[in-house]
Amino acid sequence: MRVKVSRKAHFNAAHRLYNPEWDMDKNQSVFGLCNNPNYHGHNYELIVSVTGDIDPVTGYVMDMKLLKDLIKAEVEEAFDHKNLNVEVPEFQTLNPTAENIAVVIYNKLKPHLDSSQELEVVLYETPRNFVTYTG
Amino acid sequence: MRVKVSRKAHFNAAHRLYNPEWDMDKNQSVFGLCNNPNYHGHNYELIVSVTGDIDPVTGYVMDMKLLKDLIKAEVEEAFDHKNLNVEVPEFQTLNPTAENIAVVIYNKLKPHLDSSQELEVVLYETPRNFVTYTG
Amino acid sequence: MRVKVSRKAHFNAAHRLYNPEWDMDKNQSVFGLCNNPNYHGHNYELIVSVTGDIDPVTGYVMDMKLLKDLIKAEVEEAFDHKNLNVEVPEFQTLNPTAENIAVVIYNKLKPHLDSSQELEVVLYETPRNFVTYTG
Amino acid sequence: MRVKVSRKAHFNAAHRLYNPEWDMDKNQSVFGLCNNPNYHGHNYELIVSVTGDIDPVTGYVMDMKLLKDLIKAEVEEAFDHKNLNVEVPEFQTLNPTAENIAVVIYNKLKPHLDSSQELEVVLYETPRNFVTYTG
Amino acid sequence: MRVKVSRKAHFNAAHRLYNPEWDMDKNQSVFGLCNNPNYHGHNYELIVSVTGDIDPVTGYVMDMKLLKDLIKAEVEEAFDHKNLNVEVPEFQTLNPTAENIAVVIYNKLKPHLDSSQELEVVLYETPRNFVTYTG
Amino acid sequence: MRVKVSRKAHFNAAHRLYNPEWDMDKNQSVFGLCNNPNYHGHNYELIVSVTGDIDPVTGYVMDMKLLKDLIKAEVEEAFDHKNLNVEVPEFQTLNPTAENIAVVIYNKLKPHLDSSQELEVVLYETPRNFVTYTG
Description:
homohexamer; alpha+beta; Tetrahydropterin Synthase, Chain A; 30% helix; 33% strand; elongated
């Protein structure tokens, strides 16, 4: 009996979208307002889901408290109230689009899970824009 | 790295459910209140998702602004503040159930996407009723 | 100890905004898309609040079940899956704007409450537009 | 044309997590606050989805009213305002974790569906914790 | 410049509504399902609002972190994952209706605020039922 | 018949909280993570409400389209995708707390309303923190 368990979390951060190999005009035409060199920001809403077998002894796929703590340690402490471009190592050379942030979060969480478990990361950049990555 | 990017949109419309090959009694027993010949209406909430590879140059699967504009051109301008049965050509001969509306939206959007991209349409008819179509 | 108790409800309806004393051009310039003569529709979300003293015997200001039943009898049965302009008597001569619908709901509910109780009606026409009427 | 139709429902219940084969200390260390022998409770939000072909005669995969009634008969009447551990037979010997509740709901609903239809159960234990079971 | 600052919080609890001076039949007829002697439960959502002057030095009416910590100390630690009737002293002799819970929360928080500040407590018992108390 | 009409809007921005008359340690102890000199950001959700009499000719207190356009011109174009501290003149010498942002929005909108109309500004900094200003 494989079940997917999901946990919502939250972090606030500043970011800017641009490609350092392009000039300002090209960045402006591709990224528009998101290219503001003074940064803008978001309340990112995150849903992390782990799919695995129900442990018949506990009735849990994974203790939600452990999943909450894992998200806090790996994602919230690294990203919350940060400037993603300036302060988060993964985005020194990677454009912090929602797509890339979701992939980075996936890669930070996956090693902490059992190899039999599948991981899904959903990241809301705004209430109307979100992305999903499953590896 | 395939990622699903999703965009929420919105339109209001009037509709009526009925099968013109049935008499009023049969329509009433199958469609109940939804068969009201004077129409009723909904705030339809729409989530359009496109799954594809992240473009390493932009960090985007698809520019959300383009997806927003595509939904506006193909769906909102065609359906918003309209009577679906009376004013939308696709529903002249097709019952505008949530299922059929989702299929019509899918068929309107799909030709505008890259053939390597997958499309998913989620349509909320009310906050408690919604449908999902993936082709 | 006066407490406000609130209950959410829901109805779907079609409507059209127009002033019969104006010609089509004037109606179009004032009401725009909302003037569509074929109607459009909404999922109206309603929050009805009653403020009164806590009854020390029950701990209730008003039994929420009674409030739910009152909303069902007076509002949902009268408006749900209806065409407001065509089928609801109050809107035969009154433009069914959100403002006017809220006033009509208030006037239908108020006589059923204790004279010592205050009534507030909040009506969402869309998730982004709503009105509040307190008499 | 296979479409997934989804219906949200709701029930409130009390429960307690524990394994009767463990002593109190072990239960406390695994289940923490959820092990409170006096019970705690939740507003469970449920999303039941049925995937099947659109019936060309009605435009429905399944009449949402029938799905609503099925959820009411099989889930709400059995679980709403109940103590899951004490009053619901399935949890006499099964720990009422969100995972196990979702599996029980799935098993109660599945026999009522057409064999060609797929079922998905999503259960929110809190706004931040939820599980998904697809059989 | 008086501003109202609001903070959302959450707790889960079991409860039962009844009046010990009434017999079982009377309790059943007034409180219905909520009278279940085995308890049921809710995810209570709480919004605490403090109205006061903006401190020109900080730009705050009140540090939201302090408000969050106050709610945690006074409300969440006292009520979360508890049986309100059995484990919370205030409800030994007071029926834990939403109205009474809101008043108890108000009375626990008010002494910690500045006398120049006003307090409002909004308590959601379910997503459709909520109460507001302002002293 | 005075009715309050409300419109939701949205903007994303970066900001930093600090008092330039304090040293870094004092700013850190008061504003914590919000004092990050590299900025962080939010999806601000805004609800603007105007209370006035229903115009008997239109049935409107105020055309929601005009209110939407006013919010766009005065708030969204000034704040969206901006760094509040660096790019918005009002916050050159005013700490951009939620309280102060709400007051600035109020002061920008009020002159555009009829003197008989009242204005209320609700600003969500996060889904759990929000402020209300009514002048």
